[in-house]
């Protein structure tokens, strides 16, 4: 069983930065593709970013391109989402997810991800 736990969320001013982490345990993290999704109150869960098992393939939602960076450290079984230039449209609960596929295609399809963390809250003040 794969377990994921996010950390790093919090309150930040608009224009600020946060770095989310996703600690993964239970299986060989290096063989799993990973994604980040977010869900704001009253809205559907939406795709944010995806990284393949080796890190060689990365995808972003248009809304975060150029501001967010997804990465992973397979030696430490940890994934990351670096967020810069945070906007009032970014607040949400952010979830990391993992799939035994080495690369999720299409990356934004939430049903491809078998394992999910409980989420971490990101709040942006204006």
Strand content: over 45%
* Fraction in helix: under 10%
Question: Over the alpha carbons, how many angstroms does the gyration radius reach?
Answer: 13 Å
Strand count: 11
Order of helices and strands: EEEEEEEEEEE
Overall average residue pLDDT: 95
Q: What separation lies between the terminal Cα atoms? A: 40 Å
Unreliable sequence segments: none
Main sheet attributes: strand count, strand direction, barrel closure: 7 strands, mixed
Q: Categorize the overall geometry.
A: globular
Kindly report the oligomeric state of this protein: single chain
Helical stretch count? Answer: 0
Structural class: mainly beta
What does this structure look like?
- With about 130 residues, the chain is mostly beta strands.
- It has strands at about 5, 10-15, 20-25, 35-40, 45-50, 60, 70-75, 80-85, 90-100, 115, 120-125.
- The protein is built from no helices and eleven strands.
- Strand 4 and strand 5 form a beta hairpin.
């Amino acid at each position: 069983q794969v377990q994921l736990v996010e950390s790093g969320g919090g309150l930040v001013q608009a224009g600020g930065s946060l770095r989310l982490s996703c600690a993964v345990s239970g299986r060989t993290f290096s063989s799993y593709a990973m994604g980040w999704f977010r869900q704001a109150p009253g809205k559907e869960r939406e795709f944010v970013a995806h990284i393949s098992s080796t890190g060689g393939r990365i995808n972003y939602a248009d809304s975060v391109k150029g501001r967010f960076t997804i990465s992973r450290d397979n030696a430490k079984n940890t994934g990351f989402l670096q967020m810069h230039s945070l906007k009032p449209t970014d607040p949400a609960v952010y979830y990391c997810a993992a799939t035994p596929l080495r690369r999720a295609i299409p990356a934004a399809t939430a049903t491809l991800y078998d394992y999910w963390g409980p989420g971490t809250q990101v709040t942006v003040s204006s």
